[in-house]
Amino acid sequence: MLITKNFVMLNVPKTGTTFSRTVIKKVYNNKYGAILNKIGYKLKILKREIIELKLPNIKMPTKSLDQHGVYSQIPTKYRNRPIVSVVRNPYSRFLSSYKFRSWANPTQLTVSKEIIKNKFPSFPNLNLDTYVDLSLEAEKTRLEWIKEGVENIHDLGPQTIQFVQFFFKNPEEAILKINEEYITSGAYRKDMADIRFLQVENLKDDLYNLLSECGFTKKELAFVKEHKKMNVTKSKTKATNKEWTEKALQYVTYRERFLFLILKDFGIEYQKPNLD
After folding, report:
1. What is the pLDDT of residue 239?
2. pLDDT digit string (tens) for 82-130?
3. Which end of the chain has the lower number of beta carbons within 10 A, N or C?
4. Does residue 55 sit in helix, strand or coil?
5. Which of 87, 133, 129 is nearest to 265 (CA)?
6. 68-98 burial by CB neighbour count: b if 16+ within 10 A, else e?
7. What's residue 67's pLDDT?
8. pTM passes above 0.85
9. How many angstroms separate the CA atoms of 120 and 104, rounded?
């Protein structure tokens, strides 16, 4: 996570966080010029206006420290600052995760080697439908960060679970409350932190506006809208919809149904891609 004097940025994987972190750090670190910053920090004339914290990964406890800290890990002294994060269309994020292929490394999975060997003999050469099957296997143990043996009785998808982990005050309690009434009634709101969401689809503009509100000038932000994209997963086809299958669309639509409802409640609505 990034701690700035104006806000805290939570970095959700595969939502443009590399780009966001790069831009934000560049803006804050260049405020007085790189050389003056270094001299000022060394002489303790200037106080650092941005800190990057690497924290234990509560989402996959076997992993080491990383930059993807969640709300419940924000140090108490920074909790009074606005919290900012980026959201992405769950459909495009699912497809991007498939193509990015971090799952092809067995150490990144919560699926046992025995299951992979018996059910996915062609692993890691999986088509999109077989990747859905692999995701369903992974979901069976997706809640074991709470307690071993906790079942995913509401068929929560990985993005929904991760959203709760990132943005709820007590993720362990909130994840067990999730059902349609909890979301549609708005009851979830009292358990969720106050987050300002930027959208990856408008990320350059949203970042520009955020940093402008923090007092940075047009000159200081001139590079933001021209900055090249980062960590973009390349597609073999120009039309993303051609990469979808009916099975994959149904998987995301159903498993992430509560996430879609929450995002809609925040005024962020995504349409299901068409196959044709």
Report:
1. 41
2. 999 999 999 999 999 999 898 998 777 778 889 999 999 999 999 999 9
3. C
4. strand
5. 87
6. bbbbeebeeebeeeebbbbbbbbbbbbbbbb
7. 84
8. yes
9. 12
DSSP at 230: -
My answer on whether omega of the bond before 124 falls inside 30° of 0, hence cis, is yes
Name the stretches of the chain with pLDDT < 70.
32-48, 59-63, 230-241, 276
Host H or E run for residue 252: helix 246-255
CB 75 within 8 A of CB 1: no
Residue 80 CA to residue 241 CA, distance in Å, equals 42
CA 135 remoteness from chain centre: 17
Nearest to 214 by CA among 206, 226, 202: 206
Helix, strand, or coil (residue 103):
helix
Helix (H) or strand (E) holding 166: helix 158-167
Q: Are 211 and 30 in contact (CB under 8 A)?
A: no
Q: Residue ranges per domain, the chain?
A: 2-265
CA–chain centroid gap for 211, Å, is: 20
